[in-house]
Design a protein that fits this description.
By secondary structure, this protein is of the alpha/beta class. The protein is built from seven helices and six strands, in the order E-H-H-E-H-E-H-E-H-E-E-H-H. The protein has a six-stranded mixed sheet with strand order 2-1-3-6-5-4, with helices on both faces. It is globular.
């Protein structure tokens, strides 16, 4: 199944110099296209939480975008603000993503992984991943976590199968016991009426 994915690189240097290379963004683009997904838009913004939030807000408000992936700005410096930019936009967070990412990252960078504040969540029916900016980090995130969850063949569950249900009204139950009881009662009533009708 092909998904519509938007990519955002967060970097002061790359946003100031459009000719600068972006190996992490390129790696994500190559991977998603190789797996049959569609890159609908790719942008670069500086490490400014309001610039980040403006772009991500526009994407999650657009039905044509199903997945947003950003890379960069998840560290601890004063300019790192990607988590703060995106977190207020989320309807739900996917806590396990950050937990698993840091566990996998520990295999290569050890305790340095505790400085990664990557996160994931859903907003307005869109799945969002906020990744560190290094090539190793985006490769680990895509190859060992994101790719499988964007594949409908992954069992026992994947994010693709949830996409149609992400915009469900939280106040409307998926199963209405009252309606079920009513239907059941109607059926009983009909059978009773039928029996009564057959009585002399």
């Amino acid at each position: 199944m092909s998904l519509a994915i938007a990519l955002l690189t967060v970097s002061d240097r790359r946003s100031a110099d459009p000719s600068a290379d972006d190996p992490s963004g390129d790696a994500l683009r190559d991977r998603l296209e190789r797996e049959g997904h569609q890159l609908v838009e790719r942008l670069c913004v500086p490490d400014d939480r309001y610039a980040i939030r403006a772009v991500v807000s526009r994407w999650i408000a657009t039905a044509a975008v199903q997945v947003v992936i950003s890379c960069g700005g998840t560290g601890l410096t004063g300019r790192d603000g990607s988590p703060e930019a995106v977190a207020p936009l989320l309807d739900k967070t996917i806590e396990g993503f950050g937990e698993l990412f840091r566990q996998l990252s520990f295999e290569t960078i050890g305790t340095s992984t505790l400085q990664s504040r990557c996160l994931a969540g859903v907003a307005n029916g869109t799945v969002i991943f906020v990744l560190p900016g290094s090539l190793d980090a985006v490769s680990t995130a895509w190859d060992r976590l994101i790719s499988a969850q964007l594949n409908p063949a992954t069992r026992p569950c994947n994010l693709v199968q949830l996409l149609p249900r992400l915009r469900e009204d939280p106040h409307t139950p998926a199963w209405n016991p009252a309606a079920s009881t009513s239907n059941s009662g109607t059926g009983t009533s009909s059978a009773s009426n039928s029996g009564t009708g057959g009585t002399p």
